[in-house]
Amino acid sequence: MKIKNLPKDAWLTVGLLFVVGLLNYLDRTMIATMRSSIVEGIPMTEAQFGLLTSVFLWVYSLLSPFAGFMADRFSRSKVIIGSLFVWSLVTWFTSHASTYDQLLATRALMGISEAFYVPAALALILDYHPGSTQSRATGLHMTGIMLGQSLGFIGGWLAENHTWQYAFHIFGIIGILYAFFLLFILKDAPKENVAVKEQDEIQGKVDQKDTVKFGLAMLDLLSRKSFVYLFVFWGVMGVVGWMIMAWLPTYYKEQFNLSQTLAGFYATAYLYPASIAGLLIGAFWSDKWSKKNNYARILVPMIGLGIAALAVFFGSFTTVLTVAIVFFLIYGLSRMFVDTNLMPILSLTVDKRYRATGYGILNMFATLIGGLGIYVGGALRDSNFNLKLVYQFASVSILICIVLLWLVKKYTKTAVE
How many H-runs (helices) and E-runs (strands) does the chain carry? Predict the structure, then answer.
């Protein structure tokens, strides 16, 4: 289906959500950078501090399918604004926590409120960008998320120069004010410009006016082979991603006899710029190729994963630090071809009414199983596996992901032709 012109404010919407995505990941990650200040203010064990992140992830992941459904059932823009307002309010409340239980409660509430954002945001972006700009729009939004992750250090810096409560206080207020600003600016895509027939043609002429129901959405999604394979694919990618990233500082430290500080620097400082570049390269390539090939948004990630698999494999063999850094940079860049195209791929495989619900299910599975990647790496280490072998296992897993994407393409064939 082709659309002559984008709806009004299509790129403005991406820009507005870029900021929301940045705040989303900044608010959730900065707690990790102010550990010493928080533990000094509220004494706790290492396990208790770890639980602050774990409870966020558990609540966030388990609520993601329902959060996606809410974005399909009601106004996406209102869900986004409500999510931003509530998590910003919770961020502000966090600055007033004086006991461990209060802090733990705010992290759980943060998981609830933030779960509603990403499925709604990506679905709204595709409502505004139903044609050849899907991947670019998605990639630019993901760049905001990556930037938010990379700016997490601000929390630690503010905690050192003020108090750990100060950062939560400031960013909570910023988010609340931005939510009120969005009330007047952020809108749902106009119905006449959103491709009403886009998924009717793809998925059997469904009635877009039908009421979206959670049970029917789940049945519809899980009955599609393309979605099931995409579900498995994203779960395996979650394991691989967490396995590679969580153990990369340790790999650098042990393989090249580096200090903990240098190992951590090499594992993160170079990777974020490469990942942002990968998001944008993958997005522009996919959009350009999609004008000639309906499967471009599946093929580009397949190519990227092929490069990523080779990069991880050879990066695990080299004895030269610079060469290892280059290979893992290539991995960080090419692996992002997947992230910038995931929602566009999902839109090829599911009924348009259930885009956000579908992404919520993928988000839940990847988050839950992602922690398994860290555990698997640790279990292999306990069994005296060298980290080189762990990364070689990861490279084979990436190849499996390519096969899974090919199966997604196979069962999406009749949908896009």
Answer: 19, 0
Distance CA 86, CA 80 (A): 10
Question: For residue 191, what is the DSSP state?
Answer: T
Residues 6 or more apart from 45 whose CB is under 8 A from it?
none
Cβ atoms of 151 and 26 closer than 8 Å = yes
Q: In order along the chain (417 residues), what is the average pLDDT of each group of 10 residues? A: 70 96 89 81 81 83 92 94 96 92 93 93 93 91 89 81 89 96 94 51 46 85 94 89 79 84 76 90 94 93 97 92 94 94 92 91 83 61 74 92 96 61
DSSP label of 9: T
DSSP string, 223-238: T-HHHHHHHHHHHHHH
- Sorted by sequence, the CB contacts under 8 Å of residue 101 that are 6+ apart come out as none
Query: For the stretch 94-118, what's the b/e string if a residue is b when 16 or more beta carbons lie within 10 angstroms of its beta carbon?
Result: bbebeebeebbbbbbbbbbbbbbbb
Residues, the chain: 417
Q: What is the pTM of this model?
A: 0.83
Q: Which domains are present in the chain?
A: 10-190 (1.20.1250.20), 214-416 (1.20.1250.20)
Q: Quick one: 141 exposed, middle or buried, by C-beta within 10 A (0-12, 13-18, 19+)?
A: buried
